[in-house]
Amino acid sequence: MEQVLSWRKGLFDSNYQVFSNGSLKxxxxxxxxxxxxxxxxxxxxxxxxxxxFSKPETKLLNNQKxxxxxxxxxxxxxxxxVVLASGEAFDWTFQNSWLRRWSLNNHQDKQILFNSxxxxxxxxxxxxxxxxxxxxxxIREYYSRLILGLIIGLSCLLTFKSIF
Length: 164
What we know:
The chain is α+β, with helices and mostly antiparallel strands. It has one helix spanning 130-163; strands spanning 3-9, 15-20, 23-30, 37-40, 45-51, 57-61, 67-74, 79-84, 89-94, 101-105, 111-117, 120-125.
């Protein structure tokens, strides 16, 4: 079943809203200064909780703190892997160098394609799985925050170098 959903986020915040036919389907709200988020869907409330620095991972938890999925990151290649509790694995990758298109797929029969443009976008999915869509948006924001942190860090380093 092919579905096309739209999403948007605020310009200076990290809160995503996903719409189906103009009505809100679910939302993803990030916690400031942490790579953690709360997702609210029609089926329930979920938590993305990130841990670790050298080998980072994020756990998707239900409201009873049961692990539904684990996301691991490959910082060097800007990729991630989502492993569901069932054992099914999905790879997340950017599709272009401008970081405006990315995908989440299992390299067999399930795929979600994301597009962005100035804080909003569309996603095309051949499966009906809200949690995987949320994972795709979460990973994108995770890498956006990482890139922003690197830019700020490099800017500070260059500024201090030129001062001294």
